[in-house]
């Protein structure tokens, strides 16, 4: 669905079969919130960077 809508995908929940070690990541509290914010920020930055790389080629 994310590909069809052209939006970044953030995997959350259990079970996630296509990521190793996902079940060992902190998902609650301060550390979990910081991880969530950093992960989503990085996903958005990757999308923006891909736009600039596509223009450069």
Tell me what you see in this structure:
The protein has helices spanning 2-5, 29-56. The two termini are 27 Å apart. It is extended, with a radius of gyration of 14 Å. The chain has a domain at 26-57. It is mainly alpha-helical and 57 residues long.
Q: What Rg, in angstroms, do the CA atoms define?
A: 14 Å
Q: Into which percentage range does the β-strand content fall? A: under 5%
Give the termini distance in whole angstroms.
27 Å
Number of beta-strand segments: 0
The major β-sheet equals: none
List its salient traits.
2 helices; 57 residues; mainly alpha; single chain; 0% strand
What's a concise summary of this model?
The chain has helices at about 1-5, 30-55.
Topology:
Blueprint: H1 2-5, H2 29-56
């Amino acid at each position: 669905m994310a590909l069809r809508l052209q939006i970044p995908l953030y995997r959350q929940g259990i079970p996630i079969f296509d990521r190793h070690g996902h079940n060992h990541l902190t998902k609650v509290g301060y550390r979990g919130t910081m991880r969530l914010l950093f992960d989503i920020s990085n996903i958005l930055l990757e999308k923006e960077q891909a736009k600039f790389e596509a223009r450069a080629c």
